[in-house]
Amino acid sequence: MKFGGMVATNIGDWQIFRELEELGYDHGWAPDSQMIWSDSYATLSLAAWHTERIRLGTGVAIAGTRLAPVTAHSIASINKLAPGRTFLGIGTGHTAMRIMGARPMKAKAFRDYLRVVRGLLHGEEVECEIDGETKPIRFLDRELESVNTEQPVEIYVGANGPKALKAAGAYGDGRICAGNEPLGVLDRNLGIIREGAAEAGRTLPESFHTAALTFACVMRPGETLQSERVIDEIDAQVVSTLHYFYELYQERGHDDFVSDRVRGTWEDYKRYVAETMPPERRHQMLHRGHCAFCPPEERRFITPDMIRISGGLVGEPDEIVERLGQLEQAGLKEVTLLPPVAVMRDNFRDFAEQIMSRYR
Q1: Whole-Å CA distances, 220 to 107, 245, 316
Q2: pLDDT (tens digit, 9 = 90+) per residue, 81-125?
Q3: Structural contact between residues 283 and 100, judged by C-beta atoms closer than 8 angstroms
Q4: Structurally, how many domains does the chain consist of?
Q5: Does 131 share its domain with 243?
Q6: How far apart are CA 299 and CA 289, in angstroms?
Q7: Measured between alpha carbons, how far is 142 from 120 in angstroms, rounded to an integer?
Q8: For residue 261, what are the contacts with CB-CB under 8 A and spacing of at least 6?
Q9: DSSP per residue over 146-178, as a string?
Q10: Is 185 part of any domain?
Q11: N or C: which end of the chain has fewer CB within 10 A?
């Protein structure tokens, strides 16, 4: 099992990646969300210059906000600074697009986007459609050595739905899922990825990477899911689950997907949104604090059952280690933690000392 640290990208705090390296984390992920955080590539350039071992990449880059050739050249530029330890996490843009009132990129366009990026990162010429016209493109003036495609940049596709999962199998070197999936769901989704690879005439390699974006709190003796310190360690991530539920609710027109275990909390949250977030500004307000901090007025929604269904690694050390063993046996290769900003250093350190140390 490998371990990753994801942070709310802040170019003024690039040092966190060096600290993750010192703690023994394998991957450092910089999310790409233009309306709330710093530029991921600028931040990664500083992280790359000041680290030596940790693998660095986007967590995840957003296809809808940049042309495919721009994404390819940006990550290939980071690969100049951190050759052979650079990866590209890439997704359709749940938060980055929705906070502008837009929709994530559609599956067909995303698949083609991955094809172009993969080809360019392998030093190939590819057909690329821009403004309705398709032209052959490739990196030019290679003698200037401005980008690095000699050392591979692995592509980790953010995928939860079946079409994105198949695209990951066709064009990805790995997959990162949003949330810590139940074992049966993880197994099913890995099967869909294999199907996507086979349909593309590809055999999925054993090295295909599988990561889960989640959160953790190593509980101390006597603590419960209602303890203040525990809630502080996970609050932003739990309320982000409600933000995601609301987006699905608006999109699907129903909320049948919401567990009965949290039905009361969910109904309370819907009333809160309706009463405090005007529809014309809702896209700006719904994701406030996204995975970085919990707005004080939303803390009341963090109940024990909400914590449980959000799928984090919350428990005493032996419980977390047992859960990791189950996930690893099911095919998961990396756990990627995204803690709230205010507690991230303590959170990363606790997890490294009490959980990761058992794997080293």
Answers
A1: 43, 30, 7
A2: 999 999 999 999 989 999 999 999 999 999 999 999 999 999 999
A3: yes
A4: 2
A5: no
A6: 12
A7: 12
A8: 305, 308, 309
A9: -S--SS--EEEEE--SHHHHHHHHHH-SEEEEE
A10: yes
A11: C
Residue with tokens 């955080």: 37
Is the confidence at residue 347, as pLDDT, over 90?
Answer: yes
Domain identity same for 268 and 250: yes
Distance (Å, whole) CA 302 – CA 36: 23
Integer Cα distance of 6 and 142 in angstroms: 32
Give pTM, 2 decimals: 0.97
What digits encode the pLDDT tens for the residues 124-174? 999 999 999 999 999 999 999 999 999 999 999 999 999 999 999 999 999
C-alpha–C-alpha distance, residues 333 and 164, integer Å: 19
Is 69 in the same domain as 158?
yes
3 state SS for 267-289: HHHHHHHHHHCCHHHHHHHCCCC
Q: Which domain holds residue 286?
A: 228-308
Identify the CATH number of the domain in which residue 320 sits: 3.20.20.30
* Residue 184 CB neighbour total at 10 angstroms: 9
Residue 169's identity, in one-letter code, is: G
Q: What b-and-e string marks burial along 34-63, b requiring 16 or more CB atoms within 10 Å of the CB?
A: bebbbebbebbbbbbeebeebbbbbbbbbb
* Amino acid identity at 64: G
State both tokens at 152: 């591979």
The whole-angstrom separation of Cα 255 and Cα 90 is: 28
**Contact call for residues 250 and 103 (beta carbons, < 8 A):** no
For residues 145 and 194, state if they share a domain.
yes
Query: Which residue type, as a one-letter code, is found at position 175?
Result: R
Q: Is residue 223 part of a domain?
A: no
